[in-house]
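Thread: quick sanity check before group meeting

JM: Hey all, I'm pulling together slides for Thursday and realized we never actually wrote out the predicted structure for the chain we discussed last week. Dropping the sequence here so it's in one place. If anyone has concerns about the input, flag it before I start.
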Amino acid sequence: MVKNRRQHDHLPIEKDLPTYNVTDVYYTQPVNVVKNPDGTWANNSAGLLAAGLVDGGRNLETRFGFNNILRGVLNFFDKSLVITGSMSNKRELWKGNYSSLPFQVGYGPNDVRLVNSPGSISAVNGTVVQDIYDLFANYNKKIGEHSFGLTAGYNQEYYQWDPTSASRNQLISRDLPYISLTVDNTSASISQSGFGSSYYDYAIRSYFGRLNYSFKDRYILDFIGRRDGSSRFPSNNRWAFTPGVSGAWVVNKENFWNGLNNAISNFKLRASYAKQGNQSVSYYGYLQNLPIGTSGYLIGGNRLPVTAAPNLSVDPNNYTWESVTSNNFGTDIGLLKNHLNITFDYYIRKTTGMLGPAKVLPAVLGSNAPQQNAADMSTNGWELTVGYNNSFIIANKPFTYNLKAQLWDSKSKITKYDNPLGLFSASWRQGQTVGEIWGLESDGFFKDEEDIKSLDQSAIIPWGALEIMPGWPKYIDQDGDKNNTRS
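JM (edit): ok, ran it. Output follows.
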């Protein structure tokens, strides 16, 4: 059996706003007037803002696009095997026209001046291309009290944002705000950016599979695995394999639990192990770039484009997915015929190969350490969720409500990083608790001269030019050396 669905989504969006920000009205003074008695814009905060909002130009943005979705389904063996394929293609065109125009302000009787001259105009065009392809199959089979499920699939995605912007000054006429009608002697400013972002693209390709088994819906096992490739990493370190396994025991379905079902209607024990990959890095962070500019010397009467020595920004041979391994143990408990539900999870998570500076390097090197998979982190935590739900009749109509409370805690520590001196200025240091705060711990106030002489705190006097007097804040001497310093 074949089913297919084709869908078109059009996205016409328009935005027309003044160049000046209307929220700046909060910074104006209430005694200011917007216009002078002769009808000109007043030369004060309120008048200038009003003139800018009315005559200072507009920011016009439009976006139009479509998303074409094609989906097909094949069923075999009395729907035991279902194969699904889908294709999504999105195209969008973004256009922006931004004008900053001169306007007239009255400075006094018969004194009208042009403000915000000579004006400027900017045009931005951007295109979005997104293609997503999915193909996966599900096979389910039940033999007696044994249930099996098998899933295998493929996914691919490509996304591109390609903007181009151009701007120029010196408009011929404020009534004709077009780039071609400017007289700026310099060439137009052109960049490959717009709408708050520069050009970027990325691609992802994934293969995945899952096998699950249950017996009497009482004992449940799941095995998963996937292999992902990302364009955000160099070709020799682009792929990552992430497996996982989980199991659950539904205790309340055991025969020995029958006498407890009225009190504890649901009791499940869970455990899982999973490995995940993290690709939340810059799109082209693995590329080593050459800084470009123009020569400081005339060569043949011209300043020629030149390149400089690259910075040590990345080590492409040690730049790949961060690996996150999680062990989770939990339970689900249902009380009062599942009106009261309690969920508890305890997890141990280890992150290996966190991307960051390779190590702490001497300042005399003149460059930062390259980015690479340099650090490891361990996280222990727990989560508790308690929820209550019920329903009853009010005025012959059902009324349902749900209440939920959550409590959680976690602590993360850096378990590996090449920072032998434990410098606080580095990205991490081994043994560091993530989110820790270092500072002075209050110990009251100095009472008298004897108390002041018992602890040397001169190194942390603000500005280093004051003497400690009775009543000055006193801080705990953490190492017992009778000397509080900044280190």
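AS: nice. Confidence is low (pLDDT under 50) at residues 1-6. The first helix runs from residue 45 to 55.
JM: adding both to the slides.
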